[in-house]
Prior knowledge:
Blueprint: E1 7-11, H1 18-29, E2 32-35, H2 36-45, H3 49-59, H4 66-84, E3 88-91, H5 97-109, E4 116-121, H6 124-134, H7 141-164, E5 168-172, H8 177-191
Parallel strand pairs: 1-3, 1-4, 2-3, 4-5
Helix pairs in contact: 1-8, 2-3, 2-4, 3-4, 4-5, 6-7
Amino acid sequence: MTHHTDLYVALGPPGSGKGTQATLVSKHLSLVHLSSGEVFREAMAKNTAFGAMARPFVERGELVPDDIACGAMIEKIKQFHQEEGRGTLLDGFPRTVPQAELLDLRLGELFLSLRLVVFLEVSDEEIFSRAAIRGRQDDDPDIVRHRIEVYRRQTMPLLDYYERRGILLRVNGEQSVEDVTRDILSEIGAFTQ
């Protein structure tokens, strides 16, 4: 039985449909969908302590340092868990093993831990063809290739990290949106029995 205060992470290469699935799965499981980009933007708009620290990096188009990024995410997780008793699905965070380790540490301080990490497996060919169909400005093949390379370098080691902990769930992300959602939900259901 999934518990409404559970914590999940959605991982997947750029163009894997991760954001779409995170939104759909969150709705189904009554979780709060926390997209790292939105969390940082909101923190900056409200000028929270973490928002103020993140702003210069975001304005320069640089990655927000791990401790600041993690702090902003933990702030939101804490808000939903402690004030509203709701679980969260993290999308876009953690991106690297150091971030994942920091997240585990901070969650441990709150007596929380991740329940499951859902990884959408999508081939490079599929990512390129989806980008071609979308035809957005940033879907130029060279940009897409670069995004995949960055993703591989940073995020692939995360899969081993979570696999070793026994909480990684691999889902075929090349199916229809409905089928991917159905697979994720049934796998989560089986895992959390």
